[in-house]
Design brief:
Helices cover 28% and strands 19% of the residues. A 5-stranded antiparallel beta sheet has the order 4-5-8-6-7. Strands 9-10-11-12 form a 4-stranded antiparallel beta sheet, with helices on both faces. A 3-stranded parallel beta sheet has the order 1-3-2, with no helix packed on it. A hairpin with a 5-residue loop joins strand 4 and strand 5.
Length: 339
């Protein structure tokens, strides 16, 4: 690991004053420190923000919640209000990583975790995300885990988070601060597609600190939401494909609102409002669910080794919508207990 300086921040102002292109924020460190040890990232300075008063999970007074940026993933998943109001988020968080990592990782860090593309981690090969302009060894390489949607000629990496797929479906908003002021970023605009700059994972500026994530009232989805994750082994593996689905269905069987997001298929959680709108006002039936899946996957281009993701993603969307129609799957009791 390269030498670096360390600043323990005791206030939000101190943290925002410290952040810049050279100084990165670190809280749980479950991803950044691994990348530094592997020589993938080499920030010359770190600002430790884990002790900032940003760990609260609070009612916003309008049926929604504020999730503090430094709240641990496990505390978020098992929080009573999150379980009651956003079982989809609880299920997604508990589908990711291990109990030990969830106990350490923070909400803000989860949003900023970097791709698990093995070419990104291998410093001996070209990677535009790690070294802009160097090329992409993944293209033409082993591509089982790579993108089928939204990729570019410069990068075909995927976003690794389960939590973020649920946050995308729930219309979350990311609140950030810097010395220039505060701003709110709609979740769909927070993560980027690779385009010509795959080294930029998000629209967060170098001097900005995530303070909290706002979740709007989603009570209409509480009884009909599901997070499905398909992976190579039962635990501690990243998604080949994942799907978050939530439905608001009337007694007449007509869909009043719908949310669907995919993980493991693109550089960011993949959601398309046009696909969801195709279901609204229609009956909650298999043909209409298949129509949503086809719209969501329109334009998908598989790589050499991951054509299976096309059918897997389509089936994941349809199955998630079918299961959501039949009720909410809450894996809180099935998962490991909070340690």
């Amino acid at each position: 690991m390269n030498p670096f300086s360390w600043q323990a921040c005791d206030s939000v102002d101190a943290a925002t004053g410290a952040l810049n292109e050279h100084t990165k924020a670190v809280a749980g460190g479950t991803n950044l420190l691994d990348l530094m040890k592997a020589g993938v990232m080499r920030p010359p300075a770190l600002a430790h923000v884990a002790g900032l008063p940003l760990a609260a999970i609070e009612d916003d007074g309008a049926g929604g919640l504020r999730l503090g940026a430094t709240a641990h993933n496990a505390d978020t998943a098992y929080h009573l209000l999150v379980r009651e109001r956003y079982p989809l988020l609880t299920a997604a968080i508990l589908a990711g990583a291990s109990p030990q990592i969830r106990n350490m990782a923070t909400n803000g860090g989860n949003l900023l975790q970097r791709t698990r593309c093995h070419y990104f981690y291998d410093t001996a090969v070209a990677c535009n995300k790690r070294s802009p302009g160097s090329g992409c060894a993944a293209i033409g390489g082993l591509t089982r885990y790579h993108a089928i949607l939204g990729a570019s000629e410069h990068c075909i990496a995927t976003h690794p988070s389960d939590m973020c797929v649920a946050l995308a479906a729930l219309d979350a908003v990311v609140h950030v601060r810097s010395v220039r002021g505060a701003r709110a970023i709609a979740f769909q605009d927070f993560h980027r597609l690779p385009g010509d700059h795959p080294e930029q994972d998000s629209t967060l500026a170098a001097d900005e600190l995530i303070t909290h994530i706002a979740l709007p009232d989603a009570s209409r989805f509480v009884n009909n939401s599901v997070y499905l994750k398909f992976r190579d082994r039962a635990s501690y593996a990243f998604a080949l494909v994942s799907a978050a689905a939530a439905l608001d269905v009337g007694a007449d069987g007509i869909v009043r609102d719908a949310r669907v997001a995919l993980g493991g298929v693109a550089h960011k959680p993949w959601r398309m409002r046009a696909a969801e709108l195709a279901l609204i006002g229609e009956t909650a039936t298999l043909p209409n669910f298949e129509k949503v899946a086809d719209l969501l996957l329109a334009g998908a281009v598989p790589q050499r080794d991951n054509a299976f993701k096309l059918s897997m993603a389509r089936r994941a969307v349809v199955r998630a919508l079918e299961q959501a129609l039949n009720g909410t799957i809450d894996n809180t009791d099935a998962g490991e207990q909070h340690e």
